[in-house]
């Protein structure tokens, strides 16, 4: 009794390490959109961070087989030998990078890979350079690990890519990591070998800086774009590069929660320490399914990418036909990141002034019943992200409504 009273009096206080981290803007918009849907409003959600395809049947079958054959126990801490071998083969086959098995780690999603890496390496105040727009989890994970995100704005004119001068200027003695993501969530921008080269040259000059590359959208690239990963381009940097990837986006396996990485042995070992006290190991069944995904047929990836490319073209041309919007054609992923500077300062039919990209997105949700995410959620304004991982029919309908809502602004 006394204890309860004391707890109530004291109230709840979160740890300071999460005090700067709020619920993501993306989740907030998603929740509002879902609530509007429940109220009968015809909301189209263009916010999903996952493919609208299903997990392939042979992958599902491998999971069922794993269950039936009793692969239902804890596995090796950071991945089964079978999955590590499949990942090793994948890196060699698709990326031209060779990793030993003890240079590979598997976790519960690429998100946990990032978390393990930051928790295992950052001391309080260590700096992590993150180009914006960025996937929001990057800075939040760095902050939870008590590091300091150093955000560098990369605008549309620069193709949303970090320039060598910007990287050079941002590096300090406290810099621990640079995080690069190609193709990018949210911009869809990707780094070619030529785009990477000047950045890698800068990193060669600063041996205390490590490189984390997030290749999650590797398979979703368009117009014959040649995907490359830095560890293949610059072998000297391989000994301080963590190459992150996963099965979520390529194989439509977001719910299976398997991500992986290749990197230097000592880093991989330190990451396993974090994982050992967080989850013990990734799901045994999902790991068996991921072996089938990586070792099985890959032809369907091309068909799926072609379908995404048709949708990208549809969205980019519809957005650019709207006065006041400016959408760069992305090289990959399934997002557009469109400028909306031309909408700022305008009045809605309801008499509200659009001051920010958040206001613009709120207006689109209220008036066009189209849920999109403001650039501010990704650290760069004024922009908004559309995920086109939804049917062409829904995309057409949403874009028609967006065009109408934009035309109604004065
Ligand atoms: C750029 C990027 N990296 C990593 C992830 C995490 O993927 P998962 O944890 O599902 O493997 C995502 C998910 O949205 C992403 O967009």
Describe the structure.
Its cofactor is pyridoxal 5'-phosphate. It comes from Pararhizobium polonicum. This is Aminotransferase. The chain is α/β, with parallel strands linked by helices and 410 residues long. Helix content is 41%, strand content 14%. It has helices at 2-10, 25-38, 57-68, 81-95, 110-121, 137-144, 164-170, 193-204, 230-233, 265-276, 284-295, 299-320, 357-368, 392-407, and strands spanning 44-45, 104-107, 127-132, 148-153, 175-181, 210-214, 241-246, 259-262, 326-327, 335-339, 370-371, 373-374, 383-387. The strands form 3 sheets. Strands 2-8-7-6-5-3-4 form a 7-stranded mixed beta sheet, with helices on both faces. α5 runs parallel beside α6 (137-144) and α13 packs across α14. The termini are far apart. The relative contact order is 0.16. The mean pLDDT is 95. The site of pyridoxal-5'-phosphate has 13 residues, from α5. The site of pyridoxal-5'-phosphate (PLP) has 13 residues, from α5.
Distance between the termini: 62 Å
Query: Helicity level, as a percent range?
Result: 40-55%
Q: Largest sheet, described in full? A: 7 strands, mixed
Q: Kindly report the spatial arrangement of strands forming the biggest sheet.
A: 2-8-7-6-5-3-4
What would CATH call the homologous superfamily of the largest domain? Type I PLP-dependent aspartate aminotransferase-like (Major domain)
Based on secondary structure, the structural category is: alpha/beta
The small-molecule ligands in this entry are: pyridoxal-5'-phosphate
> In angstroms, what is the radius of gyration?
22 Å
CATH class of the largest domain: Alpha Beta
Low-confidence stretches: none
Domain Aminotransferase class I/classII large: 42-402
Cofactor: pyridoxal 5'-phosphate
InterPro entries: Aminotransferase_I/II_large, AspAT/PAT-like, NHTrfase_class1_PyrdxlP-BS, PyrdxlP-dep_Trfase, PyrdxlP-dep_Trfase_major, PyrdxlP-dep_Trfase_small
Family: Belongs to the class-I pyridoxal-phosphate-dependent aminotransferase family.
């Amino acid at each position: 009794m006394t204890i309860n009273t004391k707890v109530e009096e004291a109230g709840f206080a979160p740890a300071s390490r999460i005090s700067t981290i709020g619920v993501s803007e993306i989740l907030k918009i998603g929740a509002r959109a879902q609530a509007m849907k429940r109220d009968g409003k015809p909301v189209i959600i263009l916010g999903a961070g996952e493919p609208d395809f299903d997990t392939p049947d042979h992958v599902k079958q491998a999971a069922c087989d794993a269950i039936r054959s009793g692969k239902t126990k804890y596995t090796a801490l950071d991945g089964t030998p079978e999955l590590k071998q499949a990942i090793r083969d994948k890196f060699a086959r698709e990326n031209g990078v060779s990793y030993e098995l003890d240079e590979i780690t598997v976790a519960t999603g690429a998100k946990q890979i990032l978390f393990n890496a930051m928790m295992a390496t950052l001391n309080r105040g260590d700096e992590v350079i993150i180009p914006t727009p960025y996937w929001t989890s990057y800075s939040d994970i760095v902050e939870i690990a008590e590091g300091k995100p150093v955000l560098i704005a990369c605008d549309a004119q620069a193709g949303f890519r970090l320039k060598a001068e910007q990287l050079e200027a941002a590096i300090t003695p406290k810099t621990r990591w640079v995080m690069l993501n190609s193709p990018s969530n949210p911009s869809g921008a990707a780094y070619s070998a030529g785009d990477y080269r000047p950045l890698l040259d800068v990193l060669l000059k600063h041996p205390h800086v490590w490189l984390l590359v997030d290749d999650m959208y590797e398979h979703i690239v368009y117009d014959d774009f040649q995907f490359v990963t830095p560890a293949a381009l610059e072998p000297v940097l391989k000994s301080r590069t963590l190459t992150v990837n996963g099965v979520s986006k390529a194989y439509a396996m977001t719910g299976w929660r398997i991500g992986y990485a290749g990197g230097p042995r000592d880093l991989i070992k330190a990451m396993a320490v974090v994982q050992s006290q967080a989850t013990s190991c990734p799901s045994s069944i999902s790991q068996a399914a991921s072996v089938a995904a990586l070792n099985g047929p890959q032809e369907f990836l091309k068909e799926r990418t072609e379908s995404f490319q048709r949708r990208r073209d549809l969205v980019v041309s519809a957005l650019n036909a709207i006065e006041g919007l400016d959408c760069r054609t992305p090289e990959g992923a399934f997002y557009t990141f469109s400028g909306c500077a031309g909408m700022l300062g305008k009045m809605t039919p309801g008499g509200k002034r659009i001051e920010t990209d958040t206001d613009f997105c709120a207006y689109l949700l209220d008036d066009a019943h189209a849920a999109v995410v403001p650039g501010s959620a990704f650290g760069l304004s004024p922009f908004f992200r559309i995920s086109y991982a939804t049917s062409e029919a829904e995309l057409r309908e949403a874009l028609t409504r967006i065009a109408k809502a934009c035309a109604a602004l004065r």
